[in-house]
């Protein structure tokens, strides 16, 4: 019996599972699972948005509107406080010179989000669910823990971003820990908006994106940056006179834009639309409209990021602490002590960024900046909570009540954030942000490698599996992104100047690289490197055939 025949038999067997007759486009759907039938609970999916029928045009705005939503929720991760801080630091350190890095990172992000959306549409499952069914127990648990770390790191930045915004808006009256508690409370409230309808929840996220666009757009108009400089920085991939500081900032932009948990999130969000996965035409159409919607959403997020970079590039590039101190002193700002009297280049974060804007452009600039940061933090905190729920439910196959799931995922992420807020001063969070950026960079392979693996397998994706061009280009892009992020990690570790940290990092690196190699091995087999498929299923959890080595009984898992 050859591999194709064996694959057909497995597919036929799975298609008859539970007495449900399916065809190739639904043979891996979880809908026929007895568990799914007995337990109707959902997260975010208590209703599904219907897609207009009998629309025969090649392109329909009605259908695009029906598919609009998941891409904009996904794009919020490109606008979280970590990204905003990376943007303003990029502008202050390199001027307009790194805008092309931001553009390239956003395009790469779009290509990776395309893979995530296709997995969710074609299989009817999100990435965490597929990982749960395809990887053996130990790798699956390790993968879940790594993604949870990424979510916790991202969530800490987002919640603290909200707390900083509240601190600025209250003129320091609300301490950092108080802002964290407020953010936790209102996040619980906002998360239950989907009880009033999925489209209303998506509209609320759209409102928050609009607030960001208006807030940061106001700053852009107020500062009035050099438009020629903006366009040159965006489309000329060169950085004249740049050194190690600018290089590290460029690497930081890539790490801030491409976030691991967002791949898991997007593959889940697309399940909220009614798509007949038994119909190849409908699946193809859904993939097309989700890609268009994602492109529009990321274009808007890119423009908002450009606003922030351009504002700080125009107003604060090559500014020194003494320059800022003098200006803040002249305007009567109570925060002049943030900027020591020396000629060191200005170092800013989202807190100091607001203070500097207030010193140079008036109190309105500070408060509008804080409103934009609050919208960024609140929206990304909510989508981060959804990511945590999808990841935990998918990897662990949890069947808990809605409130229990939200409470658990929030507690895991919020507890360390609250501790940081209690023991850290709002003015001295840069070191923690650097550490959190490194933490998220290290987790990136644990999203990118699995998504390329599963979308390349015809046993999972059928006719929608990655072609040769996508396999090669996807592999190159993921290798490049992971290499850039690993450089960022190495730079951070070497800057610690501690033998103890070096030894600890060495031990962690060995275990880390071993697990990465394990995932890469799986991925290469999925990409067609059959010479690596030398293990038996009993020994390593794989079968001997490239196309079916990951094809478990998707319904019975």
Automatic annotation (TrEMBL):
Return the annotated region ranges for Disordered.
1-22
Query: Which residues span the membrane?
Result: 91-112, 174-193, 205-223, 250-269, 290-317, 355-376, 407-424, 444-461, 468-493, 499-529
Q: One matching Pfam family, short form?
A: Nramp
Look up the domain of life of the source. Eukaryota
The identity of this protein, by name, is Natural resistance-associated macrophage protein 2-like
Query: Matching InterPro entries, A to Z?
Result: NRAMP_fam (IPR001046)
Topology with regard to the membrane?
Multi-pass membrane protein
